[in-house]
Design brief:
heterodimer; A: 418 residues; Amino acid/polyamine transporter I; B: alpha+beta; SH3 type barrels; MgtE N-terminal fold; CBS-domain; 3 domains; six-stranded mixed β-sheet; 19 helices
Chain lengths: 418, 434
């Protein structure tokens, strides 16, 4: 009797709940942290340095759209137990899947190149030549995932993500005029000058990227989150998305309060590091370079793997790092190709780095609306989702976000092409 | 292209491009899907047509109403007679929805594979599925790229096996489409064929499926086979299946599964659920399980199962053989018959193999070990393993903790190995990676 009473006590259930949450927490949290990768940090830094607080307001709608997209795929993962690539293949056929996968590989290759460029830039501050740093990083990532203990290293990466807190502290210590910051935050302005518009699109595009939907859903399926534990997964997504955009906001605030006020045009990493000066003083460069290195390595470990998984899942090829090379040749081939391609592109003197990144951004801009549209229509089908089908209010919100992102993305793609 | 050379075989990717014409040669629509019969080689029963790009409309044509299938498909009536409706018609089993692009089980290769294309045989107007295509060439064909990829490969990569289609005979294929009402798989395979896959392999196959497919596959296995298959799954999979079954089904399944496994499982699920499961189970089984649940899982009491053969210590060999007959399905793990005095006081143990050579009228106790070798319920895994190694036993009886030796259950070597192997691997891993 007594034992039973203890088992049912509120304290016990509270602990059980916390424990359950911790067990399920992860996918949303990791995705959010990887979201602030080399490309993200660069974009937010530029936005803050060049435009001050002009785009602060945009972080709210971006956060909402990000949450909508990530919550949707989480729900799809829980309801169907399938990855996003699986679902697209089974419901839209091989043709659409194939072209989506080609686009995903193209844009993710661009992202991987950006991560390796981030590694090169961060270690260049410390005087390490980029040929050395990038090839070492490429080998490290390849080894880590195929041979090493990635699960353990992932925790190190996550722990090192506390680096982002330095932006929050630095933004605070830089003593911006808070009333002005708050006013800017609540004051949506849409500048009609072309460069500023492109910047806005860049912020949205680097915050919401197609790989995140594929990664999030696969991670949920891998964890085997059950229907009744879905609410914990949703909290995980909400926290992740809130954190990701909060960090982005503070990067903008910190850069605005340090770089923008002293009129520094950021052209390389050592200038970007000055945003951390109020906190770290002369150590700001070291701090920034370690933070950027961690963010880039983390994303470089996840992106190629997630891409290879999605593509092989969609095309029906064997996947999994627990298989041998000859059992899953497409999987390992694609995985290795992405890493080698990303590293080579950065090391190769005379490689049209800018041009490749530019095309990858265009494909990113074109792919995102397609993915969001597919997700919205898949998660709106009762025969697939069962009781997890989009409620009416979510449909409105979801399609509005999809339309807004599509407009932005298409505008960016068009502006880059012009 | 293939259709022209050998008119008796089609790939669906080519077949679906055929125009559907009415009796006066006017276009009716394009092929949307083909409804199939549920038989060993599914036969096409209805043609589902589609027209309109933005607002799609669908129509159903029974297969008998097809006049002939050549380069185009000719119907027997005029297009005005075909009613088009708004929603896609629902058939129990259709080619595009349930097979094409879906995952299926290849029971021969024992793999879960994705179907890239379907290979159809045509005899007169009748069409049946004979193979599924799981190769790259199937993808190329579906993309409509065969006209340039095939010649390219022939010229530059002639030695690859791309040109040999990777086809799997339908005889070995079990689709994973789930019947919406019954919750089982839409079975096209013989039940027996499913049962030919060893249960550990079924469990491995299930890892590649989603949770719904796993449950449906499990439900599709004949009820008599289920406990056997279930007991081979790992704890995580057992838990998942159990949580998705209704309580009565679960209780029935558990009452037939080995007691020691069931205990482990009951410890994993919330107590309230475990209690209601126990309440639904047959009473004697439930009482034994509740007793087992009282032991910690690493003690002999937690390791043991309550399934064993006992006999009064005065029994003859013939008596014991009689007792064995109804237990024929459970004999795999049983080596000993335990001789008890009164209700359950252990006095001896007889190796079953010994009784083979004994004459029926003799007293079984003559063949017993000089003294019983047993573990106490509180003994640790290590102590039990030590005892079993010392006396070279594959199973050992467990008695209560008090002074008397009341028989509680039996620990078999597989229960010990199951716990020790992870330890051993961990130690090995530590030793090899400094």
């Amino acid at each position: 009797m007594k034992l039973e009473a203890i088992a049912q006590s509120p304290l016990q259930t509270l602990w059980r709940r916390i424990w359950l949450f911790l067990a399920i927490m992860g996918p949303g949290f990791i995705t959010a942290n990887v979201d602030n990768d080399a490309g993200g940090i660069t974009t937010y830094t530029l936005a803050g340095a060049h435009y001050g607080n002009l785009f602060l307001w945009a972080m709210v709608p971006i956060a909402i759209a990000l949450t909508v997209a990530q919550e949707m795929v989480t729900r799809m993962g829980v309801a169907t137990g399938k990855g996003l690539a699986d679902l697209i293949r089974e419901n839209y056929g091989v043709k659409i899947t194939f072209y989506v996968m080609v686009a995903l590989v193209a844009t993710n290759l661009g992202n991987v190149i950006a991560e390796f460029a981030g590694i090169a830039a961060s270690l260049e501050i410390l005087g390490v030549p980029k040929a050395l740093s990038v090839s070492a990083a490429g080998l490290f990532v390849w080894w880590l995932v195929t041979q090493g203990d990635y699960q353990r290293v992932e925790k190190v990466f996550l722990a090192a993500c506390t680096f982002y807190v330095t932006y929050i502290l630095s933004g605070y210590l830089a003593r911006p005029h808070w009333p002005t910051v708050l006013r800017d935050f609540a004051n949506p302005r849409l500048p009609l000058d072309f460069a500023a518009l492109a910047m806005l699109v860049g912020i949205a595009g680097s915050t919401i990227a197609p790989w995140m939907q594929f990664y999030q859903q696969s991670a949920i399926v891998d964890k085997g989150v059950q229907a009744r534990d879905y609410r914990f997964a949703r909290i995980d997504v909400l926290i992740g998305c809130a954190m990701s955009t909060l960090v982005a906001t503070f990067i903008i605030v910190a850069c605005s309060a340090t770089l923008h006020v002293s009129n520094i045009r950021v052209t390389d990493a050592s200038q970007a590091a000055l945003a951390l000066e109020p906190l770290a003083g002369k150590w700001c460069s070291l701090l920034f370079c370690l933070g950027l290195l961690n963010a880039s390595l983390f994303a470089a470990s996840i992106l190629p793997l997630s891409t290879a998984y999605s593509v092989c899942e969609g095309m029906g090829w064997q996947t999994g790092i627990d298989r041998r090379f000859d059992e899953a040749p497409q999987f390992y081939g694609l995985y290795s190709l992405l890493i080698a391609g990303g590293a080579l592109a950065v090391c190769w003197p005379g490689f049209p780095l800018i041009k490749v990144m530019y095309w990858s951004q265009i494909i990113n801009g074109l792919l995102l609306p397609v993915i969001l549209t597919l997700c919205m229509s898949l998660s709106g089908r009762e025969d697939i989702m069962g009781s997890f089908v989009n409620p009416a209010w979510f449909k409105w919100l979801g399609w509005t976000c999809t339309a807004a992102i599509s407009l932005l993305s298409l505008a960016m793609a068009a502006s880059l092409l012009v | 292209m293939d259709a022209q050379k050998s008119p008796d075989f089609h790939f669906y990717a080519d077949f679906e491009k055929k125009e559907v014409l009415d009796n006066s040669g006017r276009l009716v629509g394009t092929i949307h899907d083909i409804a199939l019969s549920l038989e060993p080689f599914p036969r096409a029963t209805h043609l589902i047509l589609r027209k309109g790009l933005i607002k799609r409309r669908y129509a159903v044509v029974p297969w008998e109403k097809i006049e002939r299938i050549l380069l185009t498909i000719h119907l027997q009536f005029s297009r005005e007679e075909i009613p088009f409706m708004d929603g896609a018609p629902s058939f129990e089993f259709t080619l595009v929805r349930d097979i094409l692009d879906q995952q299926v089980v290849d029971t021969n290769g024992q793999k879960v594979i994705r179907v890239n294309d379907a290979h159809l045989i045509q005899v007169e107007r009748d069409i049946r599925i004979v193979h599924v295509d799981v190769g790259i060439r199937g993808i190329v064909r579906r993309l409509g790229w065969q006209w340039w990829v095939d010649p390219f490969v022939e010229i530059f990569l002639a030695r690859t096996d791309y040109l040999k289609d990777n086809l799997i005979n339908w005889r070995y294929i079990q689709p994973l489409a789930i019947h919406p009402q019954k919750g089982t798989l839409k079975l096209t395979l013989d039940q027996k064929q499913l049962a030919t896959i060893p249960s550990p392999d079924i469990s491995e196959l299930m890892q590649k499926m989603d949770a719904h497919q796993r449950l449906a596959l499990f439900k599709s296995i004949a009820p008599d086979w289920r406990p056997g298959v279930f007991s081979n799954f790992d704890l995580l999979l057992q838990k998942e299946l159990l949580e998705n079954m209704d309580l009565k089904e679960a209780a029935e399944l558990l009452s037939k599964a080995p007691a020691d496994q069931t205990t482990d499982l009951l410890e994993e699920i919330p107590k309230s659920v475990a209690d209601s499961l126990l309440a639904l189970m047959e009473t004697t089984k439930a009482r034994r399980l509740s007793a087992l649940l009282g032991y910690t899982s690493d003690s002999a009491g937690g390791l043991m199962t309550t399934e064993m053969i006992t006999a009064p210590h005065t029994a003859t060999v013939a008596d014991i053989v009689e007792r064995l007959r109804p237990l024929k399905d459970q004999l795999e793990t049983m080596d000993f018959v335990y001789l008890v005095e009164g209700e359950s006081r252990l006095v001896g143990q007889v190796l079953l193999r010994r009784l083979l050579l004994a004459s029926p009228a003799e007293a079984a106790s003559q063949y017993a070990y000089p003294r019983p070798i047993y573990a106490r319920a509180k003994d640790s895994l290590r102590e039990v393993a030590f005892l079993m190694e010392k006396y070279r036993l594959a199973s050992i009886p467990v008695v209560n903790n008090g002074k008397e030796r009341y028989l509680q259950g039996v620990i078999t070597i597989d229960d010990i190995l199951e716990r020790i192997i992870p330890f051993a691997w961990k130690r090995r891993a530590k030793m090899t990676t400094p």
